[in-house]
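Tokens as discussed.
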């Protein structure tokens, strides 16, 4: 039997009062540099997905939220090199602080309809339609 060890990644659509979603641009030196993605990152050993996302938002954007403010929205399942990516997407409308690009090259608030024209990772593309319908 072949073993299956997916890469588990959590990401969030932070939604502002105007229904725009925060995207961040991956920095040089990382795989898929320059692409626009949802803030988030890998779930570490022993962590729940929600705890990982609260941690990533603090580390990457300097904002604070609570696990109860993270609503599961959708997921993506996609080959990623020799791994298989499971990307869990949450929606969050409540946080404290103003997002700043601590790791990313840039941040941008976008309406879902504007995302179709952006360079985003392949796993994110099916998630755009979901956000377009949801927000
Ligand atoms: N955060 C995030 N990662 C995504 C998205 N879409 C997508 O394919 N990924 C992939 O999921 C993985 C997340 O890894 P990462 O490098 O951001 O994770 P991390 O913050 O833990 O970084 P690190 O590896 O430097 O510690 C990458 O392979 C990334 O390309 C997305 O929308 N947001």
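Sequence:
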């Amino acid at each position: 039997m072949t073993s299956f060890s997916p890469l588990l990644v959590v990401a969030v659509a932070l939604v502002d009062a105007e229904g725009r979603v925060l995207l961040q641009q991956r920095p040089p030196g990382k795989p898929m540099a320059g692409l626009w993605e949802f803030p988030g990152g890998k779930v570490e050993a022993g962590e729940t997905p929600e705890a990982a996302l609260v941690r990533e938002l603090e580390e990457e954007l300097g904002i604070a939220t609570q696990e109860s403010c993270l609503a599961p929205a959708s997921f993506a399942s996609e080959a990623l090199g020799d791994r298989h990516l499971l990307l869990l997407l949450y929606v969050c409308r409540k946080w404290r602080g103003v997002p700043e690009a601590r790791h990313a090259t840039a941040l941008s608030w976008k309406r879902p309809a504007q995302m179709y024209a952006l360079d985003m990772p392949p796993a994110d593309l099916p998630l755009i339609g979901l956000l377009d319908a949801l927000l």
